[in-house]
Amino acid sequence: MPKPTNPDEMGFLDHLDELRMRLVRGLLGVLVAVVICAFFADFIVNEILIAPLLNSGSNVKLQNLVPYGQLTLYVQAILFSAVILAFPFVAHQLWQFILPGLLPKERQAARFIVLFVSVCFFSGVAFAYFVVIPFSLKFFANFGSPNIENNIAVTDYASFFLGMIFTTGFIFELPFVVYLLSNIGLLTPPFMRHYRKYAIVGIVVLAAILTPSTDALTMLLFALPMIILYEISIFISAAVQKRREREERESQ
Question: Does pTM surpass 0.90?
Fold first, then answer.
Protein backbone atom coordinates (compact mmCIF):
# COMPACT_ATOMS: atom_id res chain seq x y z
CA MET A 1 0.00 0.00 0.00
CA PRO A 2 1.56 3.35 -1.01
CA LYS A 3 2.55 5.68 1.78
CA PRO A 4 1.57 9.36 1.77
CA THR A 5 4.07 11.50 -0.09
CA ASN A 6 3.68 14.21 2.52
CA PRO A 7 5.27 13.11 5.83
CA ASP A 8 2.80 15.35 7.71
CA GLU A 9 -0.19 13.45 6.31
CA MET A 10 -1.85 10.99 8.66
CA GLY A 11 -3.86 7.91 7.84
CA PHE A 12 -7.21 7.01 9.33
CA LEU A 13 -5.68 4.79 12.01
CA ASP A 14 -3.14 7.50 12.82
CA HIS A 15 -6.02 9.97 13.35
CA LEU A 16 -7.76 7.48 15.65
CA ASP A 17 -4.56 6.99 17.63
CA GLU A 18 -4.09 10.76 17.89
CA LEU A 19 -7.69 11.19 19.05
CA ARG A 20 -7.24 8.42 21.62
CA MET A 21 -4.10 10.09 22.95
CA ARG A 22 -5.82 13.46 23.23
CA LEU A 23 -8.85 11.95 24.99
CA VAL A 24 -6.60 10.09 27.42
CA ARG A 25 -4.70 13.28 28.18
CA GLY A 26 -7.97 15.14 28.67
CA LEU A 27 -9.20 12.42 31.01
CA LEU A 28 -5.95 12.54 32.97
CA GLY A 29 -6.39 16.29 33.29
CA VAL A 30 -9.88 15.75 34.71
CA LEU A 31 -8.52 13.11 37.12
CA VAL A 32 -5.89 15.55 38.37
CA ALA A 33 -8.64 18.13 38.84
CA VAL A 34 -10.70 15.52 40.73
CA VAL A 35 -7.83 15.02 43.19
CA ILE A 36 -7.51 18.78 43.70
CA CYS A 37 -11.26 19.25 44.13
CA ALA A 38 -11.46 16.26 46.53
CA PHE A 39 -8.89 17.98 48.74
CA PHE A 40 -11.14 21.08 48.86
CA ALA A 41 -14.41 19.11 48.96
CA ASP A 42 -15.74 20.72 52.15
CA PHE A 43 -15.04 24.20 50.81
CA ILE A 44 -16.70 23.42 47.47
CA VAL A 45 -19.83 22.01 49.11
CA ASN A 46 -20.24 24.55 51.92
CA GLU A 47 -18.82 27.75 50.43
CA ILE A 48 -19.73 27.34 46.76
CA LEU A 49 -22.55 24.86 46.23
CA ILE A 50 -24.71 25.59 49.29
CA ALA A 51 -23.73 29.26 49.69
CA PRO A 52 -26.30 30.69 47.22
CA LEU A 53 -29.09 29.02 49.20
CA LEU A 54 -27.76 30.26 52.54
CA ASN A 55 -27.29 33.78 51.17
CA SER A 56 -30.77 33.94 49.65
CA GLY A 57 -32.18 35.25 52.93
CA SER A 58 -34.93 32.64 52.90
CA ASN A 59 -35.92 30.02 55.43
CA VAL A 60 -35.33 27.20 52.96
CA LYS A 61 -33.47 24.29 54.51
CA LEU A 62 -31.64 21.36 52.99
CA GLN A 63 -32.34 17.88 54.23
CA ASN A 64 -30.89 14.46 53.55
CA LEU A 65 -33.59 11.90 52.76
CA VAL A 66 -31.47 8.83 52.01
CA PRO A 67 -28.45 7.28 53.78
CA TYR A 68 -26.10 8.02 50.89
CA GLY A 69 -27.49 11.49 50.14
CA GLN A 70 -24.53 13.50 51.43
CA LEU A 71 -22.05 11.11 49.84
CA THR A 72 -23.82 11.61 46.50
CA LEU A 73 -23.72 15.37 47.03
CA TYR A 74 -19.96 15.36 47.66
CA VAL A 75 -19.25 13.08 44.69
CA GLN A 76 -21.33 15.27 42.37
CA ALA A 77 -19.68 18.43 43.67
CA ILE A 78 -16.17 17.01 43.20
CA LEU A 79 -16.77 15.57 39.71
CA PHE A 80 -18.54 18.59 38.27
CA SER A 81 -16.08 21.02 39.84
CA ALA A 82 -13.25 19.00 38.31
CA VAL A 83 -14.86 19.20 34.86
CA ILE A 84 -15.16 22.98 35.18
CA LEU A 85 -11.58 23.32 36.43
CA ALA A 86 -10.17 21.11 33.66
CA PHE A 87 -12.32 22.61 30.89
CA PRO A 88 -9.54 24.77 29.32
CA PHE A 89 -7.13 21.81 29.33
CA VAL A 90 -9.67 19.47 27.71
CA ALA A 91 -10.52 22.16 25.13
CA HIS A 92 -6.80 22.55 24.42
CA GLN A 93 -6.40 18.81 23.82
CA LEU A 94 -9.33 18.73 21.39
CA TRP A 95 -7.95 21.79 19.62
CA GLN A 96 -4.53 20.17 19.26
CA PHE A 97 -6.24 17.23 17.55
CA ILE A 98 -8.02 19.53 15.07
CA LEU A 99 -5.08 21.89 14.48
CA PRO A 100 -3.01 19.75 12.05
CA GLY A 101 -5.91 19.63 9.60
CA LEU A 102 -6.11 23.42 9.26
CA LEU A 103 -4.40 25.63 6.73
CA PRO A 104 -1.75 28.09 8.00
CA LYS A 105 -4.14 31.03 7.57
CA GLU A 106 -6.85 29.19 9.49
CA ARG A 107 -4.41 28.41 12.28
CA GLN A 108 -3.41 32.06 12.48
CA ALA A 109 -7.04 33.21 12.59
CA ALA A 110 -7.92 30.73 15.33
CA ARG A 111 -4.80 30.97 17.50
CA PHE A 112 -6.82 32.20 20.50
CA ILE A 113 -9.66 29.71 20.07
CA VAL A 114 -9.07 27.84 23.36
CA LEU A 115 -9.06 31.12 25.27
CA PHE A 116 -12.23 32.19 23.42
CA VAL A 117 -14.05 28.92 24.23
CA SER A 118 -12.95 29.01 27.87
CA VAL A 119 -13.98 32.64 28.38
CA CYS A 120 -17.41 31.92 26.90
CA PHE A 121 -17.90 28.88 29.15
CA PHE A 122 -16.68 30.55 32.35
CA SER A 123 -18.79 33.63 31.60
CA GLY A 124 -21.86 31.40 31.44
CA VAL A 125 -20.89 29.63 34.67
CA ALA A 126 -20.39 32.97 36.44
CA PHE A 127 -23.69 34.35 35.14
CA ALA A 128 -25.54 31.26 36.38
CA TYR A 129 -23.85 31.35 39.79
CA PHE A 130 -24.12 35.06 40.55
CA VAL A 131 -27.39 35.93 38.78
CA VAL A 132 -29.64 33.06 37.68
CA ILE A 133 -29.32 30.74 40.69
CA PRO A 134 -29.70 33.40 43.45
CA PHE A 135 -32.65 34.99 41.65
CA SER A 136 -34.34 31.61 41.14
CA LEU A 137 -33.81 30.57 44.78
CA LYS A 138 -35.33 33.79 46.07
CA PHE A 139 -38.31 33.35 43.77
CA PHE A 140 -38.89 29.76 44.87
CA ALA A 141 -38.53 30.67 48.56
CA ASN A 142 -41.13 33.46 48.35
CA PHE A 143 -43.58 31.61 46.13
CA GLY A 144 -46.56 29.70 47.46
CA SER A 145 -48.32 29.39 50.77
CA PRO A 146 -46.58 30.56 53.96
CA ASN A 147 -48.09 27.55 55.71
CA ILE A 148 -45.85 25.19 53.75
CA GLU A 149 -42.31 24.67 54.98
CA ASN A 150 -39.69 24.67 52.24
CA ASN A 151 -37.32 21.77 52.84
CA ILE A 152 -35.28 20.66 49.84
CA ALA A 153 -33.55 17.31 49.41
CA VAL A 154 -29.81 17.80 48.95
CA THR A 155 -29.79 15.58 45.85
CA ASP A 156 -32.54 17.65 44.20
CA TYR A 157 -30.74 20.89 45.07
CA ALA A 158 -27.46 19.58 43.62
CA SER A 159 -29.22 18.56 40.41
CA PHE A 160 -30.83 22.01 40.13
CA PHE A 161 -27.57 23.85 40.89
CA LEU A 162 -25.32 21.84 38.57
CA GLY A 163 -27.93 21.73 35.82
CA MET A 164 -28.18 25.53 35.82
CA ILE A 165 -24.39 25.94 35.89
CA PHE A 166 -23.67 23.67 32.93
CA THR A 167 -26.73 24.65 30.89
CA THR A 168 -25.84 28.33 31.10
CA GLY A 169 -22.15 27.61 30.53
CA PHE A 170 -22.82 25.82 27.25
CA ILE A 171 -25.46 28.36 26.16
CA PHE A 172 -22.74 31.00 26.38
CA GLU A 173 -20.78 29.04 23.77
CA LEU A 174 -23.13 30.50 21.12
CA PRO A 175 -20.53 33.04 19.86
CA PHE A 176 -18.02 30.23 19.42
CA VAL A 177 -20.52 28.09 17.48
CA VAL A 178 -21.33 31.07 15.25
CA TYR A 179 -17.60 31.66 14.73
CA LEU A 180 -17.14 28.08 13.52
CA LEU A 181 -20.20 28.12 11.25
CA SER A 182 -19.19 31.48 9.80
CA ASN A 183 -15.70 30.18 9.05
CA ILE A 184 -17.09 27.36 6.92
CA GLY A 185 -19.63 29.65 5.27
CA LEU A 186 -22.82 28.25 6.79
CA LEU A 187 -23.69 31.49 8.58
CA THR A 188 -23.47 35.06 7.33
CA PRO A 189 -24.44 38.38 8.96
CA PRO A 190 -27.29 39.04 6.46
CA PHE A 191 -28.72 35.59 7.20
CA MET A 192 -28.60 36.16 10.96
CA ARG A 193 -30.11 39.64 10.68
CA HIS A 194 -32.88 38.39 8.40
CA TYR A 195 -33.88 35.64 10.84
CA ARG A 196 -33.35 37.73 13.99
CA LYS A 197 -37.09 37.80 14.83
CA TYR A 198 -37.38 34.03 14.49
CA ALA A 199 -34.25 33.58 16.59
CA ILE A 200 -35.68 35.74 19.37
CA VAL A 201 -38.89 33.70 19.40
CA GLY A 202 -36.83 30.52 19.54
CA ILE A 203 -34.73 31.94 22.38
CA VAL A 204 -37.85 32.81 24.40
CA VAL A 205 -39.22 29.30 23.86
CA LEU A 206 -35.87 27.78 24.85
CA ALA A 207 -35.74 29.97 27.97
CA ALA A 208 -39.24 28.82 28.90
CA ILE A 209 -38.12 25.19 28.58
CA LEU A 210 -34.85 25.62 30.48
CA THR A 211 -36.22 27.86 33.23
CA PRO A 212 -37.42 25.78 36.18
CA SER A 213 -40.36 28.10 36.83
CA THR A 214 -43.16 29.76 34.90
CA ASP A 215 -42.25 33.19 36.28
CA ALA A 216 -41.89 35.72 33.45
CA LEU A 217 -39.03 37.56 35.16
CA THR A 218 -37.00 34.37 35.54
CA MET A 219 -37.55 33.48 31.88
CA LEU A 220 -36.53 37.01 30.89
CA LEU A 221 -33.42 36.65 33.01
CA PHE A 222 -32.53 33.59 30.96
CA ALA A 223 -33.63 34.93 27.57
CA LEU A 224 -32.02 38.38 27.73
CA PRO A 225 -28.38 37.22 27.80
CA MET A 226 -29.09 34.78 24.96
CA ILE A 227 -30.51 37.63 22.86
CA ILE A 228 -27.43 39.72 23.67
CA LEU A 229 -25.21 36.77 22.74
CA TYR A 230 -27.06 36.48 19.44
CA GLU A 231 -26.36 40.15 18.66
CA ILE A 232 -22.70 39.70 19.61
CA SER A 233 -22.59 36.65 17.35
CA ILE A 234 -23.72 38.79 14.39
CA PHE A 235 -20.68 41.04 14.89
CA ILE A 236 -18.45 37.97 15.16
CA SER A 237 -19.89 36.57 11.94
CA ALA A 238 -19.33 39.92 10.22
CA ALA A 239 -15.70 40.00 11.37
CA VAL A 240 -15.15 36.47 10.07
CA GLN A 241 -16.74 37.33 6.73
CA LYS A 242 -14.54 40.43 6.31
CA ARG A 243 -11.44 38.36 7.07
CA ARG A 244 -12.45 35.69 4.55
CA GLU A 245 -13.10 38.31 1.87
CA ARG A 246 -9.73 39.93 2.55
CA GLU A 247 -7.94 36.59 2.29
CA GLU A 248 -9.72 35.83 -0.99
CA ARG A 249 -8.60 39.18 -2.43
CA GLU A 250 -5.02 38.57 -1.31
CA SER A 251 -4.97 35.10 -2.85
CA GLN A 252 -6.06 36.37 -6.27
Answer: no
